[in-house]
Amino acid sequence: MMESLTHAYLRLIDKLEVNDKVANCKAALLHQAQSRNIKPEEYMAQHREDIVKIYKQADLSVICDLMDIGYSWREVMENYANNPMIINEYDDAALIKQYTDEVIELVNAERRKRSKTDFVEASDAFERIKKNLSKKYMDDDNSFSEYHDGEIVVSMLVNEGYPEKTVADVLMKNTEHDEIYIKSLMEKCMVVKRAYSDIQAAPPLAKARNEFDVYRSLAKEHMAKLGIKTLSYSDDMAIFEQLKAIKLPDKFIRTAMLKASPVANEPGRKNEAYVEAVLSGDSNHSEFSDGLARQPVVDVEQEYKALIEIYNSKLKKKGITDGVKEGINRVYFDTLAVKELFNKHYSEADIVRVLKEFSPEDAARSFPGYTLWVMTKARKLIEKEEYILSKPPIILPEGSYSEVIAQGFAPKDIIISLLQKRLELNPSMRHVLHKNFVDKDLAESALSRYPDFDLDAMRGVFANFPRAIILSGSKMAEEKNYVENVVETAKKRIDKQKETNKESEQLKEAFRQKQDVLHQGVTGETASMKMPIYHVGRAALSMMQNNTDEMVLRKMIISNVDAPEDQMEAITNSIIKKNREVLNRMKIVEEHIPSGQDKSVSARIFYLNRLALQHELRKSINASMDPEIVKDMLAAKVYKKTEIKDVVQELSPIAAQPGRGSDYYMEYVYPTAVSLLRTEKEKLKTYHPSPRQQKEENADREYEYHKQQILEAIALPFETAMDVLIAETMLLQGYPEYEIAGALDECSPCRENQENYGLSVTKNAASKSIVEERETIVETTIENTYEDNSLVNSRVLSRNVTENIRSTVVEGGS
Prior knowledge:
By secondary structure, the protein is an all-alpha fold. It is 68% helix and 0% strand. It has 36 helices and no strands.
């Protein structure tokens, strides 16, 4: 049973000390008025916004907190519409309506902002909690994966206080779990989070109204006494002893713990088996296994063989036909496999056994300690990675290498600081610190940033980094002079980049002198011919649009293209030919008259409709337009991917530009479109239209307002899910169902020829709200049943609670 939303709202407001802040603000304004010899009431009226701002920030914060706790959007909005804080200050109805609408308008943006701000910190918290729990389970088996995952998530939600969406995003980014598993896990963990919220909202024991209140009240006291935020099996055992002490019957203890104990409802745990374990009164039961839903155990032998087979398969796909082979690379992959086995909490004894039995390298080694040597290497590798990842952010001062070192920083601090910046951009990189590209990238970055970096000091740092550790003693070719090669490779890359940059600057200067050409930010390897050809092609296109004489055009191309002499003519012809195709496609777009509606037209017409509209608005065509259009085509769910690709390759002026290859779509347009689509879908998941109080009298006009707001906030084609959101909001605003249905039928772009479309959507929105409210209604009924029960001391408590529960509890209610 969750705390009533009104109580939760007032409790959260109380924490913010809003009344004190308002009082302080008024005192300051009064002082200012007196010092300036202005009538206090006039000055207060002039600065009313200062007071309103305090209430607005508090209301916005609490609304988002309530939704993070797990209350539905509809519940929160209905409660807030009746309880905006400002009603305690002003009785101006117009002002209150305007204020309420302004707060509600800010909710979507505030929730997105919270999610973005929290993500990086939450990713770090995830890794920290995971690391700490891995030590906790070092001697436990690995058969409770959902339980272990759930413990991390609950810790992030309850102990760390991160919002549900942020935690889900972190799981998607930092684990290999699929979306279905993560969604299911988050739903279960939110049940646990709400159970903890209910405990914190529990009344004093003397005012307990039912067995759930009794458990929660005792749990709240227990947690406060120990200074803990979450409970465990042993904590529930202690609470159970207290429940027995007040003579609460086992029947009610069982019901209370089944419904109200956060531990009993943890993911991966069978709550009935767990409660039976607690009721047995045996404090020696295993905290990690009682009531846990055991998953199939993967035998260490199977796990080891599977890992080696994965490594083997990957090598063969890269063309290394021998794969994992003793005497060549087996030591390297044995070390990697042992590291994975340690991370999955297999015991040392099992790992020793499986290596001795199944690694041909163990038998082939001349010394008997191969297995223990590999395990020592793997542990050293794990410890080094943990050391690097657990370092707090290193903020380096400005200046040269010598100046940074002079201020007390070590060479390894510089390298780790550069790595931390990489991890901010690519958190998943933390899983591959042993890969060879990591050291090379860091060495190059260090030498680019600090040309005076002491090379011997750099070699010393990389000699003790994960890659060097895993290579040591492997007898792989890479092991020989590894650290020296890392540094030398970085130096050569930088020298080559300097030459490339010099050539690039010369080319740019030549263009500036010959033509005032706008260069778009096309990325690519500057050593390749694509970049020069692209820029030359852009200059040539501009000249062709201005009807430049072809001989002049050819001279410009030949004097600027970066190509061997014997290829000049062919490249010049190709640039001119491709630019003619670009101009032809641009003409098609310019002459196209948009027709039909989205989803009802062919992929070709859809693309031309959108591109022609963009051209009309911007008076140009650029590379960002294709991904935007493809995003909308994917969102429409009526066009095949191959169909979309063919249309873009055939009609896009950008795809035809010199320097663009056949990979333009698959390497740029499609991935960018998918990323854009994912971003907008994520925004739609948390978006809710604002149930403003200053609404239109006409339902059609109010619908149009909400539709426009959604289209401005979410860059996706309008879809039925958006209509459901609007209908739900309009119900909340008080519009009758028949008026909402009429507005949908009249104005929705999704209706098309569907009969009773508006009625269907409205019923859907209404039933959705009913489902959300059902549990609240049941809980309120049960709460009201106990409204008159006031429990004073433990003896009276025992008698009254027992009698009242026996007579009034509805079995299964909570």
